[in-house]
Predict the structure of N-acetyl-gamma-glutamyl-phosphate reductase.
Amino acid sequence: MVRVGIVGASGYTGAELARLLAGHEKVTITAATSRQYAGKALAEVFPNLRKRIDITCENLTTDELVERADFFFTAVPHKTAMDVVPQLLAAGKKVVDLSADFRIHDSTTYEEWYQKHTCPELLDQAVYGLPELYREQIRQTRLTANPGCYPTSVILALAPLLREEMIDPATLIVDSKSGTSGAGRAASVGTLFCEVADGFKPYKVGGTHRHIPEIEQELSIAAGQPVTISFTPHLLPLSRGILSTIYAALTDKGRETDLQALYERVYREEPFVRLLPSGTPPATQHVRGSNYCDLSLQKDRRTNRLIVMSAIDNIVKGASGQAIQNMNLMNGFPETEGLLGAPFFP
Ligand SMILES: NC(=O)C1=CN([C@@H]2O[C@H](COP(=O)(O)OP(=O)(O)OC[C@H]3O[C@@H](n4cnc5c(N)ncnc54)[C@H](OP(=O)(O)O)[C@@H]3O)[C@@H](O)[C@H]2O)C=CC1
Ligand SMILES: CC(=O)N[C@@H](CCC(=O)OP(=O)(O)O)C(=O)O
């Protein structure tokens, strides 16, 4: 059994890591940190974990942490993660970081969208943790930067089209909608019931959302040229789920190609990508609680545009499920271990 520590166990992604790891055959959770809930059982903080998880939250220093586990998930806000990760790596541990701190390869871009990076020398060592794109590199690394939730939904939807020059990279419009768990568990006015219920609205409009550089980084690598996107996120009155609807102009090659067949070929062997028949829209309620990304392609019959739709559970494939998929790869476990629960519906 590999001993696993969850740094930030009292957040939504920490709780989801614990829920999924409770069914994992090859690891045991030996450390769970929280400052607010130190001394409290994790199953008291999250009663859904009663009789599944028997660990108490502790406020541990990094020196104490390294004694307690061999593999770590850092499920804390960006900035906090880069204060902890270097010491864990220096102690010979492997880490999947769920924050944004190691996702952007270029420190100047990171600093433009976030804040000063305190360990830019680690950026080269970190592998972007999207197994469908970087499986072999993830197997070899000690530091995986788990992708953001919106980026996961967008990159899986577009990378094969850009790689094969099927769409014009200058024409990408991404319309994404997320449930409120994406904002984390900390109290804030924007996620109060009355602010969110009975309606929905866009936020960070006009190229201001911090997931833009991360999405553009990966789409540019796929396209082999710089890609810029128009990205508008929306907040939905749901707890879980992201749906992205993406519009792109087809190239001549894209117009002539059977894109459904291309996606079938690319994703056939992927355990967590489900390509839907063309014309069947994905739905957040069909991936809820699971590590699946449901994708659907549809040509617009009246314009030259392709519409790509993508649905994930933001806390599973968008965070903790993908983090466990990465841990499995980094430890040589079967990639799907602990992750094969079917989505819960209704
Ligand atoms: N929610 C989502 O859908 C997704 C989240 N992420 C990323 O995952 C990470 C965790 O997100 P999420 O679980 O939603 O966040 P939450 O706000 O729900 O939880 C944050 C956790 O970090 C701990 N924490 C906060 N500040 C500090 C600090 N200064 N020092 C030590 N611990 C701290 C909190 O515990 P305490 O305050 O008790 O110490 C809590 O356990 C973030 O980086 C987020 O961006 C990524 C993809 C999707
Ligand atoms: C609904 C909501 O607020 N979502 C968050 C994204 C959460 C996430 O995946 O992002 P990071 O891991 O990059 O923090 C947001 O828009 O900032």
Remarks:
- Residues 316-331 form the longest helix (16 residues).
- The pocket of NDP (ligand 1) is lined by residues 8-14, 34-37, 75-78, 80, 98-99, 148-149, 181-182, 184-186, 314-315, 318-319 (CB under 6 Å).
- The domain at 150-313 is CATH 3.30.360.10 (Dihydrodipicolinate Reductase; domain 2).
